[in-house]
Amino acid sequence: MERKISEILGYKVDLLSFDEAIETITEKSTEKSTQTVTINPEMIALANENVVFSEILKNADLVIPDGVGIKIALKIQGIIQEQIPGIEFAKRLIEYCAKHSLPIALIGAKEEIVQNAAKNLKTEYTNLNVAYIRNGYFSENDERTIIDELKNVNPKLVLVALGVPKQEIFINKYKNEFFHTMFVGVGGSFDVWSGQVKRAPLLFRKIGCEWLWRLIKDPSRFNRMFPTLPLFLFKVIINKK
């Protein structure tokens, strides 16, 4: 499938449907290991201050429009693009692996959280093989052991929940040591899958306002989201003009 992309403030975003995103990354992973980035305005703002992270975003194998701010930015450019929430994208890849009896790995979060996430996922997908589980409380000195353990189970999918940009940097550092593995940074997804945190009601998700629900539930997020989002959209408008 020919890659269709747009650029937002110098960062590429793949233009495809949800189904096309799944098809693209599963096909690419037959040739090499891949890194998918679930991009949002906060990540772009952070990348502008972090050269290493910036290069990772620019060179990812797939960049899906996770945040509603990305969807709005594309619309400002005259592009109508489906929003692809990272948590749902990861869930579809889990479903794919369960269907084809392919092993997966979960890395990140607290021990109780990642264990419960694995347990609940195995309940939801009866054929799912969670071949490797590791909490996110490890140092750089532990990474080699983790990677060697991962190689022993040869997972098709590795979901990393270490937070941005740590998870993206970790994936980028080691993905080329694998051959046909899909790597995705999933942020707080393990918290949701474990039952520790509830996602926004379906109505909020359908209208692209899951961010508003999270803000209502956790007002401390306000300082992180604002002025990042308005400033991001302002820059997009200026850039277009």
3D architecture notes:
The protein has 241 residues and is α/β, with parallel strands linked by helices. It has one domain: PrpR receptor domain-like (Rossmann fold, 3-Layer(aba) Sandwich). It contains 13 helices and eight strands. The chain has a six-stranded parallel sheet with strand order 4-3-8-7-5-6, sandwiched between helices. The protein has a two-stranded antiparallel ribbon with strand order 1-2. Strand 1 and strand 2 form a beta hairpin. Helix 4 (68-76) packs parallel to helix 13. The chain is globular. The two termini are 32 Å apart. The model has no long low-confidence stretch (mean pLDDT 94).
Main sheet: strand order: 4-3-8-7-5-6
User: Tell me, what is the CATH class?
Assistant: Alpha Beta
CATH topology term = Rossmann fold
Structural class label: alpha/beta
Query: Could you give the order of the helices and strands?
Result: EEHEHHEHHEHEHEHEHHHHH
Gyration radius from CA atoms, angstroms: 17 Å
| CATH H-level superfamily title | PrpR receptor domain-like
Number of strands: 8
Question: What do the pLDDT scores average to?
Answer: 94
Categorize the overall geometry. globular
Q: Figure out the total of helices.
A: 13
Biggest β-sheet strands, sense, barrel: 6 strands, parallel
Topology (elements, then pairings):
Blueprint: E1 5-8, E2 11-14, H1 18-28, E3 34-39, H2 41-47, H3 51-58, E4 62-65, H4 68-76, H5 86-99, E5 103-108, H6 111-124, E6 129-134, H7 143-153, E7 157-161, H8 166-174, E8 182-185, H9 189-193, H10 202-206, H11 210-217, H12 222-225, H13 228-240
Parallel strand pairs: 3-4, 3-8, 5-6, 5-7, 7-8
Antiparallel strand pairs: 1-2
